[in-house]
Write a structure and sequence with these properties.
A hairpin with a 4-residue loop joins β5 and β6. It contains no helices and 10 strands. The chain has 110 residues and is mostly beta strands.
């Protein structure tokens, strides 16, 4: 999972499949515009195959179905989310917000 966008405006996730022969791009998923440094957070919950990406400008986390490669939801999380981590044992997702200086927790039940 790689976050990127045109003209330094991160707005999508490209999904690649890795093999011994190299990488193959299999999908692009559009998420909200995250701004120039929105690509700070990508986390995968391996127990649910759900992907979480931060959108700093929009103050949200994009939630992607890792099997269907589609956007499931955009969740408001606080001001300027950047770091994100998944705990597959508890299905809790932790989002660190830079500007609001706090932690937001999402239950992965999508």
């Amino acid at each position: 999972y790689v976050m990127l966008g045109p003209d330094d405006i991160v707005d999508r996730v490209q999904i690649y499949q890795a093999a011994a022969s190299g990488l193959t791009r299999i999908a692009d998923v559009i998420v909200e515009i995250g701004g120039r440094d929105a690509g700070g957070g990508v986390a995968v919950n391996t127990s649910t195959n759900t992907v979480f990406v931060t959108n700093a400008r929009a103050d949200t986390v994009g939630i992607i179905d890792g099997v269907a490669d589609t956007l499931l939801a955009l969740v408001p999380v606080g001001v300027d989310p950047f770091g994100v981590a998944a705990n597959p044992a508890t299905n809790l997702i932790y989002v660190g917000n830079r500007a609001s200086d706090d932690l937001y927790i999402i239950l992965d039940n999508f």
